[in-house]
Specification:
By secondary structure, this protein is mainly α. The protein has nine helices and no strands. Helix 4 packs across helix 6, helix 5 packs across helix 6 and helix 6 runs parallel beside helix 8.
Length: about 140
């Protein structure tokens, strides 16, 4: 598996844990990253970049989710789905070096792997709307 794919999976696990435990993302990251993950510094660095970025832009990211998820509230969304959306929106809006198509595709694959049957479609729909309406994401 590619390094960035592994990093996204690691970031998702951290986001998920922080969400269900209602704790700081960075605190969970410090506790969650084991010696096995630290063997590949590139994976850990990219995962940390996502986690720190999501934490720093948490309100903005959640507002974008809610503005594009018609008739949905955050507490009604599956925990894994909303955290995949957070990860994807952070990449779309704050990581111009990552192509939008890659971000959306990786998020859909995470949703298919960790979510339920409809998660891939749900994540695709929201991220596509963010991509089409966010000026930074459109430039990629």
């Amino acid at each position: 598996m590619r390094r960035r794919t592994l990093a996204r999976e690691l970031a998702l696990k951290i986001l998920y844990q922080a969400d269900i435990r209602n704790e700081s993302l960075c605190a969970i990251a410090d506790a969650f990253i084991t010696p096995e993950e630290t063997e590949d510094a590139e994976v850990v660095d990219f995962a940390r970049k996502i986690v720190v970025g999501v934490e720093q832009n948490y309100k903005e990211i959640n507002d974008l989710i809610l503005s594009h998820a018609a008739n949905w509230h955050m507490d009604r969304m599956a925990v894994v789905d909303r955290n995949i959306l957070r990860l994807g929106i952070y990449e779309l809006c704050h990581m111009p070096d990552v192509p939008s198509k890659v971000t959306i595709n990786e998020a859909i694959e995470l949703a298919k792997k960790y979510g339920d049957v409809e998660s891939g479609k749900f994540v695709n729909g929201i991220l596509d709307k963010v991509h089409k309406t966010n000026p930074i994401a459109q430039k990629k």
